[in-house]
Design goal:
This protein has helices at 12-29, 36-51, 55-72, 76-79, 106-121, 137-151, 155-163, 170-179, 184-192, 197-210, 231-245, and strands spanning 87-89, 95-101, 125-131, 217-220, 223-226. It has 246 residues and is of the alpha+beta class. It has a 5-stranded mixed beta sheet.
Amino acid sequence: MTGSPRFGGISSTLAIAIGAALLGFAGGWAWQATGAGREATQKIVHDYILDHPEILPEAMQRMQQRELAARLAPLRGTLENPYPGAVLGNPSGTVTLVEFSDYACPYCRMSVPEVEALIAANKDLKVVMREEAVLSPQSEDAARMALAAADQGKYAAFHKAMFGHDHLSPETIAEAARAAGLDLEKAKAAIAAGKYDSEIRNNIRLADAIGFGGTPAWVIGEDAYSGAQNAATLADSVARARKAKQ
């Protein structure tokens, strides 16, 4: 499923709410006026909204951006601080893209070449991978193995090998681990000890706190997207995030 940028989209209910808010503002603005003066001001705003309904989606987008910024602000440090080794691109990059991913998600698999293209075009890009693991029991198994791969410095190799399979199963997880060159005994011991369980739970909590309802999901600077996105959309957000740091 392809999501809309910055949680875009506007419902008729929300449009009405925004219109009411604008009219309410007009009422407050004209509070000191009396009688015909107040009514005239309210009518001007009312008529302007009716004549220019295109302002409602823009107002909605701005409201959503403010709400999103408020949700992201207290999470930023945790969100952009990866599990050690669970990074694609430049680990020391100055621009950070956060991706919430699930190895059972076909749209996450479809996004792999888009992310690779983004990394190739942006040498300063660090992609922080958040293993969310919500779609199947095997999702958790694959996420644990991915984090074990991160411990062994082989996250990117496992990630690519795992998404090279068109389905998720104990067999494909083991095949991807072998293809990435993991020490399987060491990885299985860490998994059995529950080393990665809290990281996966924390990723799910982060996604919920932001308002994501599925995978893939993305945070880049002040932008957030839910669903598969094309490289151009993500590239635009990377450029905005880079500019904001300058």
